[in-house]
Amino acid sequence: MDEHEYIYQLRPLVIPGLFFLVLYPILLGCIFLFHKFPSMELNVLIGIYCLSVLGILSLWVIGKSKRVLIKEEQIIFSSLLGKHVLEPKDIRRVAFYFDGKGQEVAQIRTGDVFFYLSEFYFPFPELMSDLENFIREHNLRSNLQNYLGLNE
């Protein structure tokens, strides 16, 4: 198996945040024109906006650094928050399922820690193929047979 790296897509996280950052001051300005805020209320609203900006920037920076690397003997999750190296002996179970929105999700369980792979990773179809190959090569416990409809 070749080494492949998959990056996290930021569009689903950042686009709604950017809409908020643009619309919030416009809405606040319109309300301010028709109704004068006391300074304390205005400071609270500006504080909420500043915290939102910091939160969205932190999501962007952390999301931009998220990567999954699948090697022959390891699955490596890395981001600014740290690096997690999973070897076949560490993985207890891999479960594939669809969430409430119909998106495909893979859950990798190692002891008490769960790692999730979703359609936010690009390119997702290749990631799922590599993960399925990794499961087969290392004979890991999973619901792959049921998930693919290959009941033997």
Protein architecture, described:
The chain has 152 residues and is an alpha+beta fold. It is 47% helix and 26% strand. It has helices at residues 11-34, 39-65, 124-138, 144-148; strands at residues 4-8, 67-70, 75-79, 82-86, 93-98, 104-110, 113-117, 121-122. Helix 1 (11-34) packs antiparallel against helix 2. The two termini are 25 Å apart. The model has no long low-confidence stretch (mean pLDDT 84).
Strand order of the largest sheet: 4-3-2-1-8
Query: Considering DSSP H and I runs of 4 or more, what fraction of the residues is helical?
Result: 40-55%
Number of helices: 4
Q: Give the terminus-to-terminus CA distance.
A: 25 Å
C-alpha-based Rg, rounded: 21 Å
Give the strand content. 25-35%
The string of secondary-structure elements, in order, is EHHEEEEEEEHH
- Biggest sheet layout: 5 strands, antiparallel
Number of strands: 8
The whole-number mean of residue pLDDT values reads: 84
Strand-pairing-aware structural class: alpha+beta
From the spread of the alpha carbons, the general shape counts as elongated
Unreliable segments of 5+ consecutive residues: none
